[in-house]
Design a protein that fits this description.
73% of the residues lie in helices and 0% in strands. It is mostly helical.
């Protein structure tokens, strides 16, 4: 029996994926290299981001009974299809390991400074395995519940910070021209929009109200982009660019300024939980994509074997994430300079070429 998911649930997953690399990756990158012009980079990235978004929508609508890796097998020779699927799946495993490393680095530096990162990582193994073994339907329902919680925390954040905005902090704009903001808009696309390829592991026919998918996924993209813009706007107008660039996680330090109804303070540990939800879901969906690919490739039908594969991959990815980098400095250099290129080539350029092949196939 096929697992079903609604458009609201798959859009909840898409929303989390779109915002998952905000914490400590895209905010740090844009603020360091474009400063006040980060807002310009976001606007350019939002406009250009429709290109990968529409490519993934096109892929989803072609042969709606198949997953992305199955579609590749229908339009390319078997050996080439196997190589491309292996490259894409391997890249997905690697990047979600990096994303998970970034989350554990955040937790250990801001919450649990005396706790080894390995212990923090192990804590996440049971919930990830549980979600994946329960299947797509449970993942969708869980993500929707987390979305409600996240939007509530986001609302509290905005309400607690709105009165502290100082608009003069975003000036001057484009002091050094448009080249820098444009370049880093492409980085933004690679980190925040290209990972949407993960939802192509769900056949369109598995969506109960699939006729609403195209419209709702575009609305989700627009809303998530507005949230991202709001976060950067608050960072720049409240902290100021000179202070924001001093921190690896400026959005967390921004939360320390929250004051609700004048006396509720020190809420940053609570309202920052939504970032952990974001990364948790992108890790779950990354492992889901790869496990579905493995099950399809090796024709695995036995449920017990499926659970073993899910558990093995989850443990491998989460534990290995602790050994990717010697320290956070090396990690930041790699993430800033190389990871976006890897993501762009394997998860955007390849699907772009495949979408052109789909057009010719039609």
């Amino acid at each position: 029996m096929k697992e079903k998911i609604s458009t609201i649930q798959i859009c909840s997953i898409a929303y989390f994926i779109l915002l998952s690399n905000n914490l400590g990756i895209i905010t740090y990158n844009l603020l360091q290299y474009t400063r006040q012009d980060s807002l310009i980079s976001l606007i350019i990235g939002f406009i250009l981001g429709f290109i990968p978004l529409l490519i993934y929508i096109k892929i989803m609508n072609y042969r709606p009974d198949l997953t992305f890796f199955q579609k590749i097998e229908t339009i390319l020779p078997k050996k080439i299809a196997n190589i491309i699927n292996l490259i894409i799946s391997g890249t997905i495993l690697y990047i979600i390991s990096v994303f998970f490393y970034n989350m554990t680095d955040f937790i250990s530096s801001q919450y649990l400074s005396r706790t080894p990162s390995m212990i923090i990582s192990i804590v996440f193994i049971p919930p990830i395995i549980y979600l994946l073994t329960k299947g797509l339907t449970v993942i969708g329902r869980t993500t929707f519940v987390l979305l409600i919680i996240s939007l509530t925390l986001l609302t509290l954040t905005i309400l607690g910070l709105f009165s502290q905005i100082e608009l003069q902090n975003i000036l001057p704009i484009l002091e050094n021209g448009i080249k820098g903001p444009f370049k880093h808009a492409l980085v933004y696309i690679c980190y925040n929009i290209v990972p949407l390829i993960l939802i192509t592991s769900i056949p369109l026919n598995n969506i109960t109200d699939k006729e609403k998918f195209n419209k709702r996924i575009i609305i989700t993209y627009i809303f998530a982009s507005m949230v991202m813009f709001t976060v950067f706007f608050l960072i720049l107008t409240i902290l100021g660019v000179n202070i924001a660039t001093l921190y690896q996680f400026p959005e967390y330090d921004l939360l320390k300024k929250i004051s609700l109804v004048g006396f509720i303070q020190r809420t940053e540990s609570t309202v920052s939980l939504r970032w952990i939800f974001y990364i948790l879901i992108i890790v779950v969906m990354g492992i889901y994509y790869v496990t579905e690919y493995i099950k399809h490739t090796f024709k695995i039908k036995n449920q017990q074997t499926n659970k073993i594969i899910i558990s093995a991959i989850t443990i491998l990815i989460i534990i290995s994430a602790n050994f990717l980098f010697k320290n956070s400095v090396v990690a930041n250099i790699f993430i800033d300079n190389k990871l976006s290129i890897i993501i762009g080539i394997t998860l955007f350029i390849l699907p772009l070429l495949l979408s052109l092949k789909l057009k010719r196939t039609k």
